[in-house]
């Protein structure tokens, strides 16, 4: 997704923006993580046949991100 497409399709309202800002502060996420969360939220909205990203889409995307972060150090070595 180009930056132009990102800006066009990944807009969120004030409630979603505040939710994401709070998560960024509490989880110590980067600007890159912000973009990734918004892209996942856009996908969730698309799957729900929603034109706009809703706060619940942002919350679900944040939840997936926190699940991903919790597994960073828990990689299982491949079995021989």
Q: What does the model show?
A:
The chain has 80 residues and is mostly helical. Helix 2 (14-27) packs parallel to helix 4 (55-70). The chain has one domain (3-70): Helicase, Ruva Protein, domain 3 (Orthogonal Bundle). The protein contains 4 helices and no strands. The model has no long low-confidence stretch (mean pLDDT 82). Helix content is 68%, strand content 0%.
Low-confidence stretches: none
Proportion of helical residues: 55-70%
- Give the CATH architecture: Orthogonal Bundle
Write down the overall geometry: globular
Q: Assign the CATH topology.
A: Helicase, Ruva Protein, domain 3
User: How many beta-strand segments?
Assistant: 0
What's the main sheet like? none
Question: Span from first to last CA?
Answer: 38 Å
Indicate the mean pLDDT. 82
- How large is the radius of gyration? 14 Å
H/E element sequence: HHHH
Portion in strands: under 5%
List the total number of helices.
4
Global structural class: mainly alpha
Quaternary state reads single chain
């Amino acid at each position: 997704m180009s930056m132009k497409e990102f800006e066009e399709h990944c807009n969120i309202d004030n409630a979603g923006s505040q939710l994401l800002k709070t998560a960024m502060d509490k989880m110590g996420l980067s600007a890159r993580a912000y973009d990734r969360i918004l892209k996942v939220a856009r996908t969730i909205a698309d799957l729900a046949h929603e034109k706009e990203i809703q706060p619940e889409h942002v919350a679900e995307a944040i939840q997936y991100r926190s699940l991903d972060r919790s597994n960073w150090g828990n990689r299982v070595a491949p079995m021989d």
